Amino acid sequence: MPSGVAWLPASEDLRLQVRASPGARATLILADGSTLPLVEEPATDDVPAGIGVTALHAFGSANYYFTPGSLASVYAGAGYWAQITARDGPDNGSVLGLGGFEAALSSRATVYVEGGYGFALTQTDGGATRQRFVARIGVRVKL
Q: Residue 87: which of 61, 116, 54 has the closest Cα?
């Protein structure tokens, strides 16, 4: 049974949140043994979803390196980007045009800066096409 201590001025409210099955009864037992029944409230969907929220994405690209044998190279390419979690509706991903700069850190790792522009493959409810701007900084590791 969870327990804890909270001290508050008499003028402040203490909000308790308990997750339980619909129709379940929950009771707060105070230190002096008295009980307070907790009132059920409908759950609210407070988890954000859609474009721009923290989510897991899958992406892949094909890049053309202008100086492939050097320690640093500018590149251009095309990519596909799809949001896997926290979607707010159907989403077939986005197609992107990419450009960037990549430089070697070692024989197995490179650092890159890239940007791109693209459009979604799924239209909005109003028939519009979503556009996507991408900017990334990262490290690529060869396994």
A: 54
Read off the DSSP letter of residue 55: -
pLDDT tens for residues 31-63? 788 888 888 776 666 677 777 788 888 989 999
Question: Residue 93 and residue 58: Cα distance in Å, rounded?
Answer: 9
Q: What is the CA radius of gyration of the chain?
A: 26
The three-class DSSP label of residue 143 is coil
Q: Return the domain boundaries, the chain.
A: 57-141
Mean pLDDT of the region 120-138:
87
- 138 contacts 85 by C-beta, under 8 angstroms: no
